[in-house]
Amino acid sequence: MIVPALIGSLPRPVSLAKKIEQYSIGRLKEEDLEKAYLEHTRRAFIKLREAGIRVITDGLYRWDDIFNPFIRFIEGVEVNGLFKFYENNFFYRSPVVRGELSLRENPLPEWLNQALAIKEEVYPGATLKAVLPGPVTLAYHSLNEYYKSLDELSEAYAGVIEEAIKELPVELVELQEPALAAELSRATREKSDEVSKETAKTLIERLSKVKELWVVTYFGTPQVLPDNVILNIDLISGSVPEKYSGELGLGIVDARETKMERRDRLEDKLRPYFRRHSRIYVTPNTLLDFLPESVAWRKLKLLGKLGGE
Amino acid sequence: MELPILPTSIIGSYPKPRWLLRMYSLRELGRLPEEDFREAVRDASVAVLREHERAGIDIPWDGEMGRSEMTEYFTAKIAGFKFYGPVRVWGNAYFNKAAAVSKLEYREPLVLDEFRWVKENTTREIVKVPITGPYTIAEWSFNEYYSSKEELAFDLAKILNKEFKLLEKEGATFIQIDEPAMLNHPDEVPIAVEAINRAVKGVKVKFGLHVCYSNYYLLADYFEDIKVSQFALEAANRNFRDLDYLKKLIHQELGFGVVDVHNPRVESPEEVAKAIRKVMKYVEPERLYINPDCGLKLLDRRIAYQKLVNMVKGVEIVRRELAREGKTSIPFRREV
Ligand SMILES: [Zn+2]
User: Fold this and answer.
1) What's the pLDDT score for residue A309?
2) B294: CA distance to ligand 1 center in Å?
3) Which letter does DSSP use for residue A93 in this model?
């Protein structure tokens, strides 16, 4: 069975961005901004239904990048300037770790409850998952001024994530973990320390006992293969490791190029995986933020057409 | 042609006057005739040119008043590009990322009008024409047509080469190629180098190359291969630390960035002078130009102006010191 799914974000509509900007300079009331979030989420869910995407996220409309605002809810973290997100012309605000990490506040359950309510109304058949950055990717993208090693830092992040996901009103949680597959670009930063593969595997498997996990990797082939999770793999710039036999999400549609894939070619590409997997999730290969909105939706519609037995 | 030693210049962009930004919005809403918009751009252009000259800049430009953005301005003029809509760069900042959907062709001049206008209005002998380079345009576009980024970048190089020849014929003497993305993918740097070399081929003007906020050690390995006579690089943003990559800059000139464009604090003339003295340990003054780190457009206009004023004052301090050694001018060098 092929199940079309969304991973991470949808492109933030310009109309929503304008509202957020107005709010930030005091020209829009908070309740009007909230209304805008809900209205855009509703529109997105209707379009996801029409496209036939069965597992969805809330599109991360409240998120500037995969780390923000989550890192703003963590004690011990300050938010720094802009850094290039891998080799993309896309920038994130980096966490600076200045002290021991703990979860300070958690608006995620409330946001998810709102999304769930909208989903029940316009697309009850879909499964909604939460999205958070994973501990390994968080550690790699932090400026670490406190913990002795990246291993320790990722462990501290895992503790915070565990706290955060315990309280979520959904069963399925997506962890954005590109760092399991992608090298931090030499163009951006020289890497001096790393999270060991064993630590990465242990931490993610520990989190998988709290909620069902969908671990999303991209920009390479995952070097860490956690058990008991759905592992999403970027087939555009990576491949499925021979020894992986767990549940599989395949990023088969290129979210960094506007060129449309051919449906028959995608179906050919999927065929070999059915020898080992009875169910496969099909997704974009990475965040849809890298595409203009119109193209992103065209690609989602294409994914939706792949769905079925 | 002679220039005072340590010639001062800019990188490209400058804050747009607020009234001009209003013109941009009105135009976007379709409430401003194109003719009026063009007039506004030209007036702003002269205003900024004067501002550069008043600050004492030897080699000015108009601060890119007519350019909304550094790739869209060019891709919109090249046949074969299509726009699907804006793409987010961070937060709520977007840009219109073009998609190459058919073979790219030179359709109309890219910056010729800008150059003519500046040339007509400046009091200076030399102006610097900044143009986004072939690799950066390729890197910041979608590619639906070409079989590789290399092919795309090389076709862009061909188009830029045509423009450069046109500019040369019109009397341009100094063109700066902006390649902020050329070090994005370490493995693709040779493609960027080749694209730049194809773009400058057969054009006898001075070429500079500006690269910013990247790993310069990666660039330094290619200094000798890139056929430009000057590299304009940022250093203030790094607090003038870690300049050892300059040991590899043996022949060409350095356009040294002494003003941080991401920080509203105005550097003092003495700070600027100190930075120049430091870089002179790597590059002799006869091969040095002085400029801000990058385009100034994100700053408040008054602060941008004050930064240029202090930059020139700082240069003047060092010039007085150099004058005692009899060093007062350098030839304007075009050859690589
Ligand atoms: Zn720059």
Assistant:
1) 67
2) 4
3) E
Say if B261 falls within a structural domain: yes
Domain that holds residue B225: 2-69+110-331
Is A147 part of any domain? Answer: no
**Residues of A near B (CB-CB distance < 8 A)?**
11-12, 14, 17-18, 20-21, 64-65, 81-82, 84, 87, 89-93, 185-188, 190, 257-259, 289-295
Asked whether residue A285 is assigned to any structural domain, the reply reads: yes
What pLDDT shows up at residue B214? Answer: 87
Q: Lowest mean pLDDT of A53-62, A83-92, A204-213, name the range.
A: A83-92
User: pLDDT digits over B200-235, tens only?
Assistant: 999 999 999 999 988 999 999 999 999 999 999 999
Give the range of the structural domain holding residue A123, as residue numbers without chain letter: 2-68+104-140+156-306
- What are residue B14's DSSP bridge partners? none
| Position A186, amino acid | R
CA distance A12 to B88: 8
Residue A286 lies in a domain: yes
Instruction: Kindly determine whether residue B186 and residue A21, on different chains, have CB atoms separated by under 8 Å.
Output: no
Q: What CA dihedral angle connects B109, B112, B113 and B117, to 10 degrees?
A: 180
CATH number of the domain to which B53 belongs: 3.20.20.210
B290 in a domain, yes or no? yes
The rounded distance, in Å, linking the Cα atoms of A112 and A170 is 8
Q: Which residue of A has its CA nearest to B215?
A: A187
Split into its structural domains, chain A has a count of 1
**Has residue A187 got a pLDDT over 50?**
no
The DSSP element (H or E) to which A21 belongs, if any, is: helix A14-24
B131 to chain A, minimum CA–CA distance in Å?
19
Set of chain B residues whose Cβ sits within 8 Å of the Cβ of A296: none
Which among B85, B86, B186 has the least Cβ separation from residue A187?
A: B186
When pLDDT is cut at 50, 70 and 90, the band that residue A191 belongs to is low
pLDDT score for B321 = 98
Minimum distance, in Å, between the CA of residue B141 and any CA atom of chain A: 9
How many domains would you assign to chain B? 1
Tally Cβ neighbours within 10 Å of residue B158.
16
Both tokens assigned to B159:
């188009």
Q: In CATH, what number is assigned to the domain containing residue A195?
A: 3.20.20.210
Mean pLDDT of B23-52: 96
Is B220 a domain residue? yes
In chain A, residues with a C-beta closer than 8 Å to the C-beta of B184 are: 84, 87, 185, 187
pLDDT in tens, A1-38: 999 999 999 999 999 999 999 999 999 999 999 999 99
Angle of helix A30-51 relative to helix A293-306, nearest 10 degrees, comes to: 40
Top pLDDT among B120 and B28 is at B120
Contact B90 A64 (CB under 8 A): yes
Q: Is the pTM of this model over 0.95?
A: no
Residue B98 domain-assigned (yes or no): no
Please report whether residue A126 resides in a domain. Answer: yes
State how far residue A202 is from chain B, nearest Cα, in angstroms.
Answer: 32
pLDDT category, A190, cuts 50, 70, 90? Answer: low
Percent share of chain B, pLDDT over 70: 100
Concatenated DSSP letters for B272-289?
HHHHHHHHTTTS-GGGEE
Q: Which strands form B230-233's sheet, in the order they lie side by side?
A: B129-132, B174-178, B206-211, B230-233, B253-257, B288-291
